[in-house]
């Protein structure tokens, strides 16, 4: 037996099974990483872009879509170099965003990062729950319109759909870790392309059918609201666009799925370029075509706001694809948070059978702590979504409060440290100036989104969200 083990080691079989950190050999490629990125990026954010264009007009709306895409791409490229420290090829792995911040910037920044990152992940999971319930309700309304005509209200109470989505996530949340999500991400990425394509097709059909709704090159005039309300909506729209590009909080988890050869940072740069390019193309087409179709009166969610009624079955397919996509995207964003809590608990209670013990049930392994903790999280997220089911304002709040720290500030600060950028050099000044501008814009967007939430809460009934 020892002789066989020796021969096995000499042939390198053991080395083929494990990576340099002793973990099971990673198998991810730029294609699987791109699928993860597209799944995380092309989420509920795409559905609000038509409304954003209606607040900003052709010029500013298009400009902000492109600028946010370029900034996100650039800072993510910087971030990929920080997966390993101190060198992007030979350094030790940083398995998540917080670990990278702690390694490069120290403890105080680590705490700030933890607050920003997990606010994002928690907020996005709640946002996805809201969006899915609205899409489920839209399917019911579409069938009602088909049966009774477009003049009937056909309003649907979203509460039951929020509970259905939450129940499905109770099951999916028991997937043990991020490395088991490749199949879910690929399905979700396909769904995002399908419903985005349907939305574009319906917009083109509506444009070709005539009507020519009023649009604006500059900021659209709003006779039905005050200048102050118009300004708040503009800030909220900026927050929605920022939300649409937020995936940096899980970039390291995605990069950690990649094979170690070729170097992870090179492969991740390719995946980031492909993922953001594909996502931006869909954003531009959906947002611009949707604005051309609906004009300045675009609904907050262009697939559930019923500017499109027919063919009703195609609208139903689009909304079903949204639900399927967000079922997967929800797991992509919450698995890092699950892992953080569970890893902390294992370190805190190393002798606890409740925390560590795995029970085999057929093919599956069940851990009681994981079962209870994850189920509790899903139930609480669903409860919050039922209490605050406000699509545009909620997405804007998440995007505005997390875009600057996670997408701009930390990537720039870590890159400056790791690349040893000389203080007051041109590159140092340029990077710090970019960070400052993004902070100012994010602050304005946050103010607009908070104001939007306050107004929505004042005019709604608790647990009585209606599509």
Quick overview:
This protein is mainly α and 467 residues long. It contains 16 helices and 4 strands. Helices cover 70% and strands 3% of the residues.
List keywords for this structure.
mainly alpha; Amino acid/polyamine transporter I; globular; 467 residues; 70% helix; 16 helices; two-stranded antiparallel sheet
List strands and helices in order, with pairings:
Layout: H1 2-11, H2 13-17, H3 30-41, H4 49-80, E1 84-85, E2 92-93, H5 97-105, H6 107-148, H7 159-172, H8 182-208, H9 227-244, H10 251-255, H11 264-294, H12 312-348, H13 353-356, E3 358-361, E4 364-367, H14 368-387, H15 391-418, H16 426-458
Antiparallel strand pairs: 1-2, 3-4
Helix pairs in contact: 3-8, 3-11, 4-9, 4-11, 4-15, 5-6, 5-15, 6-7, 6-12, 6-14, 6-15, 7-12, 7-14, 8-11, 8-12, 9-15, 9-16, 15-16
